[in-house]
């Protein structure tokens, strides 16, 4: 809501700087987005009068203008606006002036002719295109005839007014109007509000009952009123009205529509004007739309109506979408002579659903959704009718057509002084609190220490004692409330076991060189169903924010691949990301998904770049596997870990993917993504892993216990064996550990060979076995005995050939 301090001063006299006022509003009522004045930053922009306009000899669209700017001689200015004409008052930027965007205007030549300045459109001096009158959008603006050449243009256009842009919260919809804001400012500064009230001058020749018969369901419209204004001339609004509208962020259209918008900003009451001559019959009904009904709204969109849409209908069908937008069939135009003016209070819930259903959010629908002052509906209607009659030279038909009318009474709320002081931690007196309620212009009665407060309908947000406490706190001043520490026994905070594991997981991956990424929990259905670790139904949103965020994710990899693609597209090619978060699995037949903690990583390019003493380290399968091993071992999962070649992941590269097991428990997978997936994301070879962190958390773990380094020497034995290619390293290591004896401390694979001197389909694996006893020196014969047993078992189990 854009508040002009000049307009505000008509209602309440507060003589403070705009920035000071804005700060006070922000600390007391609602947030302030911006404080500005349109003339700020502009320089030497004055009124000019075009004396002569001639075609440019070297251009088919430029004109040479002689312009009076209040100096001894007129200036010659070249102008390309299509609507330029002689004897018009225009906006002129003089030589060495500054226009919007801090652009400096200098003397120069255009197609060989001297130009001493610039004739400006409203957009060129800081007006947004959305508020410029349509007839001047593609040309220059003509000032009123009484504008004096040479004078600054700012007062003529309202550019000398300070504007405070309020970010009004839904609970303070009363401040979506100048009058509501005036009451708030008056309470803050302890001033009195003085509001004008137009007297309605009705024609006694006829009555509105002869023209209109209204019918409204009170469940749809608790108040529905209409007035009729005859013999109206539709024309441009006076400049005072246009200034108030564009400073409020509204485009002026004509005197009829402008009045409804003016009253909307003044009272916060949405109105709608119909061309009475285009209404079929005399009956106007407020009802729900019928299935299949069609309405073309003022934005020229044909809309199929829903059975939950409230419509205004005549004898043939809908003519407006109630509280949202009017219909094109009854639009006010240059031929309108009789105006039917509507004021109402519609069902806020249905209006909100209609606005969302049709994606048609307007100033009117926003106010009906949040609430309007039900006590001033008739007054707003009367004010608008009188303004239309005055500006359109028409006459108001006597009487108000009534479809429904809600009686409004103040809401009474009681609260004790003790309760106020207890909640706020203050020591306020009865007089102070009573004065605050009076400043808000609430009625108040005091019985001992209890206040009975009569809240007027303009503050429909107040209905319970807690609301009154908030009002006292606001007006008294939040900065005046005492700052105290809470009392009571304090419990030291700490992480539970799950939180500790999650945080340790993040720390380990970051220490390993990965960077944390945070992806959206919502994605497309196709991406959600990739990289699944268990069967699951997709969980889709009823009202997604966009087509890319329709489904709850069932993996973390898709989000990481999006992040990698984003970085690669910006020339960042060496990436190592991880993400820890939840995925959402849903069984068939259930409504709600189950949230499961996962951890995943994605790496591409170089893990380490080359330096003067180190070679580069590209990302590959074994580096990714090493990160997973490091993570599991450090978290304490050290027993029975198996990496099994996997072929069941269609998004993964066949032959370069391994499933991770702990015993028979499937924990996750790692490997290279399928080339088709990499191509889809426009990325190079990428390796990923994803683990079920919930299973890791619940698994039994080997605690790290300090053990002293043995002071006795170790003995090593090497063995090289040729085995079939189908035999995995993990099987051989398991056999060695099983038969190596109690002194076997470590098994290391240090060589793999295939090729010459090895049989076809065979490979050579070489292992180093380390034996050590922590209590005594090992004897060579004891080690040889244990080693011989290992060799014998390898030959027996794998038909290995010892080399």
Automatic annotation (TrEMBL):
> In what residue span(s) does the B5 domain sit?
408-483
EC number(s): the record gives 6.1.1.20
Record: residues binding Mg(2+) = 461, 467, 470-471
Q: What is its main location?
A: cytoplasm
The protein's annotated catalytic reaction(s) are: tRNA(Phe) + L-phenylalanine + ATP = L-phenylalanyl-tRNA(Phe) + AMP + diphosphate + H(+)
- Where the record annotates domain TRNA-binding, the positions are 39-154
Q: Per its Swiss-Prot or TrEMBL entry, what cofactor is needed? A: Mg(2+)
Q: Which GO terms describe its molecular function?
A: ATP binding; catalytic activity, acting on a protein; magnesium ion binding; phenylalanine-tRNA ligase activity; transferase activity; tRNA binding
- Keyword presence, Protein biosynthesis: yes
| Positions of the FDX-ACB domain | 710-803
Q: Does the keyword Iron apply?
A: no
Q: How is the cofactor bound?
A: Binds 2 magnesium ions per tetramer.
Tell me the compartments it is located in: Cytoplasm
* PROSITE patterns in the cross-refs: B5 (PS51483), FDX_ACB (PS51447), TRBD (PS50886)
Annotated Gene Ontology cellular components are: phenylalanine-tRNA ligase complex
What UniProt keywords apply to this chain's record, in alphabetical order? Aminoacyl-tRNA synthetase, ATP-binding, Cytoplasm, Ligase, Magnesium, Metal-binding, Nucleotide-binding, Protein biosynthesis, RNA-binding, tRNA-binding
Which GO biological-process labels does this protein carry?
phenylalanyl-tRNA aminoacylation
Record-stated family: Belongs to the phenylalanyl-tRNA synthetase beta subunit family. Type 1 subfamily.
**NCBIfam families cross-referenced by the UniProt entry:** pheT_bact, YtpR
Assembly mode: Tetramer of two alpha and two beta subunits.
Q: What is this protein called?
A: Phenylalanine--tRNA ligase beta subunit
- Where does this protein come from, organism-wise? Liquorilactobacillus sucicola DSM 21376 = JCM 15457
Gene, per the UniProt record = pheT
């Amino acid at each position: 809501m854009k508040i002009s301090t000049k307009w505000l001063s008509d209602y309440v006299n507060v003589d403070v700087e705009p920035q000071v006022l804005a700060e006070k509003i922000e600390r007391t009522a609602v947030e302030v987005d911006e404080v500005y004045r349109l003339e700020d930053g502009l320089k030497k922009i004055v009124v000019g009068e075009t004396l002569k306009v001639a075609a440019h000899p070297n251009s088919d669209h430029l004109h040479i203008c002689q312009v009076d700017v209040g100096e001894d001689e007129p200036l010659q200015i070249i102008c390309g606006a299509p609507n330029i004409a002689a004897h018009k008052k225009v906006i002129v930027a003089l030589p060495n002036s500054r226009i919007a965007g801090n652009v400096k205007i200098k003397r120069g030549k255009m197609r060989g002719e001297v130009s001493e300045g610039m004739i400006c459109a409203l957009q060129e001096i800081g007006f947004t295109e959305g508020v410029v009158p349509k007839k001047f959008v593609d040309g220059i603006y003509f000032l009123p005839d009484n504008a004096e050449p040479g004078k600054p243009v700012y007062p003529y256009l309202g550019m000398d007014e300070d504007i405070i842009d309020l970010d009004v919260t839904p609970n303070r919809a009363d401040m979506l109007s100048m009058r509501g804001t005036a009451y708030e400012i008056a309470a803050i500064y302890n001033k009195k509000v003085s509001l004008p009230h137009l007297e309605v001058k009705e024609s006694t020749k006829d009555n509105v009952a002869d023209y209109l018969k209204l019918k409204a369901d009170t469940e749809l419209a608790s108040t529905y009123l209409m007035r009729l204004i005859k013999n109206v001339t539709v024309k441009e609004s006076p400049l005072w009205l246009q200034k108030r509208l564009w400073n409020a962020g509204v485009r002026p259209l004509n005197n009829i529509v402008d009045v409804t918008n003016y009253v909307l900003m003044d009272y916060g009451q949405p109105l709608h004007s119909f061309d009475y001559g285009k209404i079929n019959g005399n009956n106007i009904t407020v009802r729900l739309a019928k299935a299949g009904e069609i309405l073309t709204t003022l934005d020229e969109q044909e809309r199929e109506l829903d059975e939950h849409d409230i419509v205004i209908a005549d004898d043939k069908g809908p003519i407006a979408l109630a509280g949202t937008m009017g219909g094109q069939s009854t639009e006010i135009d240059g031929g309108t002579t009789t105006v039917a003016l509507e004021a109402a209070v519609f069902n806020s819930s249905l209006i909100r659903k209609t606005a969302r259903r049709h994606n048609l959010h307007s100033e009117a629908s926003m106010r009906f959704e949040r609430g309007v002052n039900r006590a001033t509906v008739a007054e707003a209607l009367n004010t608008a009718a009188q303004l239309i009659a005055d500006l359109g030279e028409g006459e108001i038909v006597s009487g108000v057509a009534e479809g429904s009318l809600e009686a409004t009474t103040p809401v009474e709320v009681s609260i004790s002084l003790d309760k106020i002081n207890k909640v706020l931690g203050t020591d306020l007196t009865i007089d102070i609190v009573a004065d605050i309620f009076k400043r808000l212009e609430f009625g108040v009665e005091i019985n001992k220490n209890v206040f009975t407060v009569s809240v007027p309908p303009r503050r429909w947000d107040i209905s319970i004692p807690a609301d009154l406490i908030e009002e006292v706190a606001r007006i008294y001043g939040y900065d005046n409330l005492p700052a105290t520490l809470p009392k009571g026994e304090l419990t030291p905070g700490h992480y539970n076991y799950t939180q500790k594991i999650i945080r340790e997981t993040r720390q380990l991956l970051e220490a390993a060189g990965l960077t944390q990424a945070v992806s959206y929990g919502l994605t497309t259905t196709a991406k959600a169903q990739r990289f699944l670790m268990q069967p699951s139904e997709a969980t889709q949103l009823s009202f997604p924010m966009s087509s890319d965020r329709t489904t709850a994710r069932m993996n973390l990899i898709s989000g990481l691949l999006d992040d990698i693609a984003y970085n690669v597209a910006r020339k960042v090619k060496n990436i190592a990301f991880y993400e820890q978060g939840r995925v959402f699995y849903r069984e068939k037949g259930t409504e709600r998904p189950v949230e499961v903690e996962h951890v995943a990583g994605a790496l591409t390019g170089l893990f380490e770049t080359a330096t003067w003493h180190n070679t580069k380290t590209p990302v590959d399968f074994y580096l990714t596997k090493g990160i997973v091993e490091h993570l599991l071992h450090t978290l304490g999962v050290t027993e029975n870990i198996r990496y099994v070649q996997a072929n069941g992941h269609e998004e993964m590269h066949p032959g370069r993917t391994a499933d991770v097991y702990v015993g028979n428990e499937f924990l996750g997978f790692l490997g290279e993504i399928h080339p088709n997936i990499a191509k889809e994301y426009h990325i190079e070879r990428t390796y990923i892993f994803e683990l079920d962190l919930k299973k890791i958390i619940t698994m039994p773990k080997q605690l790290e216990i300090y053990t002293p380094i043995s002071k006795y020497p170790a003995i090593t034995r090497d063995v090289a064996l040729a085995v079939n290619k189908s035999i995995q390293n993990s099987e051989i290591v398991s056999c060695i550990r099983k038969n190596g004896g109690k002194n076997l401390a470590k098994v290391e694979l240090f060589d793999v060979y295939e090729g010459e001197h090895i049989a076809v389909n065979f490979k050579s694996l070489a292992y180093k076995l380390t034996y050590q006893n922590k209590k005594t020196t090992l004897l060579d014969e004891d080690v040889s005995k244990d080693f011989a047993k290992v060799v014998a078992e390898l030959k027996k189990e794998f038909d290995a050939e010892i080399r």
